[in-house]
Specification:
86% helix; Methane Monooxygenase Hydroxylase, Chain G, domain 1; homodimer; mainly alpha; 6 helices
Chain lengths: 214, 214
Amino acid sequence: MRIQFDQQMERLHVELIRMGSLCEEGIALSAKALQEKNPAFLQRIAAVEVEIDDKEREIEDLCMRLILQQQPVARDLRFISAAMKMISDMERIGDQAADIADLAPYIVENNSQSKVHIGDMALATVKMVTDSVEAFVKTDAGLAEQVIAADDEVDGLFNQIKEELMQLIYSREIDAKASMDLLMAAKYFERIGDHAVNIAEWVEFSISGQHRKL
Amino acid sequence: MRIQFDQQMERLHVELIRMGSLCEEGIALSAKALQEKNPAFLQRIAAVEVEIDDKEREIEDLCMRLILQQQPVARDLRFISAAMKMISDMERIGDQAADIADLAPYIVENNSQSKVHIGDMALATVKMVTDSVEAFVKTDAGLAEQVIAADDEVDGLFNQIKEELMQLIYSREIDAKASMDLLMAAKYFERIGDHAVNIAEWVEFSISGQHRKL
């Protein structure tokens, strides 16, 4: 029984790492799609989103089986509950990466992405997602802490981009649709940053048993 | 044991209904805040958001205890799993209602809400949330179906508002910041509609055991 439990916990760990890597790939692709018009990026993001959704259900089933069959307690139960929360944040990161990719072609056609700091925001958010997954893989509370701190920078970039877009609208230097699409893309990146923070907070919780928001 | 189980399941049902009512109140208030500048609305929304977050944790604990202590199977386990999913959608509805309320004062100051169909979108979304909760309370698969169908209307209104905002920007008939804030508010309503659809799909799942997306 205990051996089977350890095997299932190991598998849960491996599947979470895989799902995290898919999120990293999705958001990295969405950042690329905002720099260069390339249908291959969009096709790959669509595939990644499907893989992420499948992975979420797979991990959910695994967690439910673990809880029902193995009656975990204390730290193990904490880890499984954290896993069930993390996967819904990861699933939304996949959705939002796909949403950004949908907006990208029109933005790039107008070369509007070059007029605001959306590239910086993309880079900062990709790093938050990568670090949050890394913090989980290495159970690194310090790195989780850094992800949570990095969110202020991303929120600041969102406000900056909003200001830049307003100025471009006033001065008629941007296509109106592109300005709306860029605002939405920036908002999606900001939300992805929030989900990376949630993941980092669940990493902290599974390590310490303390959740800063609870 | 069975009596205790029935009591806990009954309590889960009651708490979910309470959380649903809080969501209805939150979004109804956010719709009002977009029509009239009134600090009382904003204070109440902030309080509702806190109540919703507390309720989510309370219900989550109850579900975990039910699963661990009572080893539910089949329909009961299905209902508990659906409950755990529904509450995260409800929690996000609360967040987004608060996000809309944050944007409302500047929009109303400029009376920009009257220039686009945001009021219609608010009404349609409030109805989706109310109906999704109602469908759960009455285990009404037909009503759940209607909620899912209503999402097309809300998505259509979002695109309409985006078009209206673009025209207002071209013709300089709207404040640039208000136009951005209105686009964000419309997006939050659209997301709330998506969460109402998720709730309706979990209602269907807990009734039929079939999830249309799985």
